[in-house]
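Inverse folding, one chain.
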């Protein structure tokens, strides 16, 4: 199977079986999504959705968060991973958002990554979800799933994964493809024991056909 054929199969399957795919983070405006994505680094969306309602109620706009102290903010996110660092990032992000961008979340990767706590993954989420621009945010799920299926080859960094996916997908599908891969990795192609028996992509998946087929289907014999 060629790379082009594998990509076509994967994209066609997701379009048919997951026509609607979006972030599971709860938010009502770009500022709230930015806060939620910063908090979600190495933490579950479920946990973030538990802490953000109170945080957003107390700091509904970046102007208020920018004026807050560490001691003000940290209790709201104490249960989130790396709460100390993320508290500083949130306050610094809000301060720059207000003073450099007039309280408006930027719409370019270059401007977004200048904000404290915002890396390329977070920036890609914002431009694709908020501004409907082509962007491929690579988190641990996207990195793992892309490599297992064979969409990426020898990609050792998130940036290399992003570049390969962007090069081989139609621009108009990049934003939703990001969610397809995340959700597939979260619920099917999980890290420790992928649910290959439930996966509709195993026909073209390099990982399944090289490693898992003989475990999932003991009756299968190598040809």
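Residues assigned per position:
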């Amino acid at each position: 199977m060629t790379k082009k054929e594998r990509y076509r199969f994967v994209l066609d399957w997701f379009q048919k079986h997951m026509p609607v795919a979006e972030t599971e983070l709860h938010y009502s405006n770009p500022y709230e999504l930015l806060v939620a994505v910063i908090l979600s680094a190495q933490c579950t969306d479920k946990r973030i959705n538990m802490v953000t309602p109170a945080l957003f109620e107390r700091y509904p706009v970046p102007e208020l968060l920018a004026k807050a102290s560490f001691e003000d903010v940290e209790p709201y996110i104490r249960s989130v991973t790396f709460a100390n660092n993320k508290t500083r990032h949130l306050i610094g992000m809000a301060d720059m958002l207000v003073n450099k961008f007039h309280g408006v979340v930027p719409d370019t990767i270059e401007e977004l990554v200048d904000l404290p706590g915002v890396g390329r993954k977070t920036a890609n989420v914002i431009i694709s979800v908020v501004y409907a621009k082509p962007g491929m945010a690579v988190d641990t799920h996207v990195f793992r799933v892309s490599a297992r299926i064979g969409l990426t080859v020898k990609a050792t960094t998130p940036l290399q994964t992003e570049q390969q996916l962007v090069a081989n997908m139609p621009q108009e599908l990049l934003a939703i493809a990001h969610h397809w891969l995340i959700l597939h990795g979260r619920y099917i192609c999980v890290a420790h024991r992928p649910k290959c028996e439930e996966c509709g992509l195993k026909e073209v998946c390099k990982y399944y056909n090289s490693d898992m087929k003989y475990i999932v289907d003991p009756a299968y014999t190598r040809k």
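The chain has two domains: 3-20+137-216, 30-129. The two ends are 17 Å apart (CA to CA).
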